[in-house]
């Protein structure tokens, strides 16, 4: 990894330790959005990483996004997720009209927050089951439907909404930009979650919600392809978030086992503990290598990136769960107490195996791609 990336990592790690970590336990305990950390991140320009300089961003590549997600999640997964959610607005830079692009600087600066509305009560991995509709009317579109488990729901200023623009049996979908103050948008109760409790999550409901024509991103029948392109990037960002949790859990385990004394010596010196730590390190470093390979493949436009991004999602998020689980075990009874960060990391890890494409779906993608290459 080159000097620019390593220097950036050091900067974000220092920021995470000083500005994010102090709030992590509190936002988890009280289920509060990471307001302080999000505001502090604006000075560092984290929300603007992928946006071109002309829109107030830093024109950073995907590796910088991945490093930022990883280092933030190392101390607070909720903060990592809420900041990374700003990056989805880059879909407008690629596909939006000039009027929509006027909204980008506010997001790139961190002044405005964003969320994306894809999942529905009956439509998670099966996008073709989406029932939210956008009907063409004079001067715009009318959206009706219910989106479920929306990250930054009720907290974000702008929402990217995937909705059907054709009949229920075709693949015509549009992506629409809806503001939190638009008439016809409302929000469900905030979900009381197991983990990542500092990341606001709720239903986003559309009832005869009118948006002007310019709020449609690109072609009104190509929204599915726009979202699928972005999902590759998003999947790698979530992989990095899982990797960050795994690294944070490993750090906590190493520190605790070197401090905890039993039978006259630190438990880190016990053979069984050494074996567990070694296995945790292997999981962290092997998943990191796979993630970075997938990132470089996407940056360079190499074939096979869909399979590798899915493999990275599996490896990094499974590592998050496995390493956090072992770290709790190494803490003994203390790992079960909310006073210790590892208890939160254990809860935060689980959802990474579920959202942005469950790991079962990821395994299907990997198997399908391998079969396609080897069998034809």
Automatic annotation (TrEMBL):
Residues 221-370 form the Acyl-CoA dehydrogenase/oxidase C-terminal domain. Residues 117-209 form the Acyl-CoA oxidase/dehydrogenase middle domain. It catalyses: 3-sulfinopropanoyl-CoA + H2O = propanoyl-CoA + sulfite + H(+). Its cofactor is FAD. PROSITE patterns: ACYL_COA_DH_1 (PS00072), ACYL_COA_DH_2 (PS00073). It comes from the Bacteria. Transmembrane segments: none annotated. Keywords: FAD, Flavoprotein, Oxidoreductase. InterPro entries: Acyl-CoA_DH_CS, Acyl-CoA_Oxase/DH_mid-dom, Acyl-CoA_Oxase/DH_mid-dom_sf, AcylCo_DH-like_C, AcylCo_DH/oxidase_C, AcylCoA_DH/ox_N, AcylCoA_DH/ox_N_sf, AcylCoA_DH/oxidase_NM_dom_sf. It is an enzyme of class 3 (hydrolase). GO terms for molecular function: acyl-CoA dehydrogenase activity; flavin adenine dinucleotide binding. The keyword Oxidoreductase applies. Residues 5-111 form the Acyl-CoA dehydrogenase/oxidase N-terminal domain. Its EC number is 3.13.1.4. Belongs to the acyl-CoA dehydrogenase family. This is 3-sulfinopropanoyl-CoA desulfinase. It comes from Seongchinamella unica.
């Amino acid at each position: 990894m080159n000097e620019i990336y390593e220097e950036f990592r050091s900067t974000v790690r220092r920021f995470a330790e000083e500005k994010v970590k102090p709030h992590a336990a509190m936002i988890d305990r009280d289920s509060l959005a990471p307001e302080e950390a999000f505001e502090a991140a604006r000075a560092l320009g984290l929300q603007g990483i992928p946006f071109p300089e002309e829109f107030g961003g830093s024109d950073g590549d995907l590796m910088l996004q991945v490093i930022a997600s990883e280092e933030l999640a190392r101390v607070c997964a909720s903060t990592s997720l809420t900041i990374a959610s700003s990056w989805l607005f880059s879909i407008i830079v690629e596909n939006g009209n000039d009027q929509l692009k006027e909204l980008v600087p506010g997001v790139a600066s961190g002044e405005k927050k964003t969320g994306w509305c894809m999942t529905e009560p009956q439509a998670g991995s099966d996008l073709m089951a989406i029932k939210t509709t956008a009907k063409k009317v004079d001067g715009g579109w009318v959206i009706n439907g219910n989106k479920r488990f929306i990250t930054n729901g009720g907290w974000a200023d702008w929402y990217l909404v995937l909705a059907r623009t054709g009949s229920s049996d075709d693949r015509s979908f549009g992506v629409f930009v809806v503001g939190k103050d638009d008439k016809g948008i409302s929000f469900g109760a905030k979900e009381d979650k197991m983990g990542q409790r500092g990341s606001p999550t709720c239903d986003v409901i559309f009832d005869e919600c009118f948006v002007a024509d310019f709020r449609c991103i690109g072609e009104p029948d190509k929204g599915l392809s726009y979202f699928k392109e972005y999902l590759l990037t998003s999947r790698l960002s979530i992989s990095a978030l899982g990797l960050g949790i795994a690294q944070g859990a490993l750090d906590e385990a190493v520190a605790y086992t070197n401090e905890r004394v039993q039978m006259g010596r630190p438990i880190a010196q016990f053979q069984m503990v050494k074996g567990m730590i070694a296995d945790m390190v292997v999981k962290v470093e092997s998943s990191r290598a796979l993630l970075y390979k997938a990132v470089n493949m996407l940056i360079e436009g190499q074939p096979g990136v869909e399979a590798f991004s899915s493999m990275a999602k599996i490896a990094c998020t499974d590592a998050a769960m496995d390493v956090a689980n072992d770290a709790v075990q190494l803490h003994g009874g203390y790992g079960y107490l909310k006073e210790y960060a590892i208890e939160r990391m254990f809860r935060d890890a689980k959802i990474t195996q579920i959202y942005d494409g469950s790991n079962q779906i990821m395994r299907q993608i990997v198997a399908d791609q391998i079969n396609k290459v080897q069998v034809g």
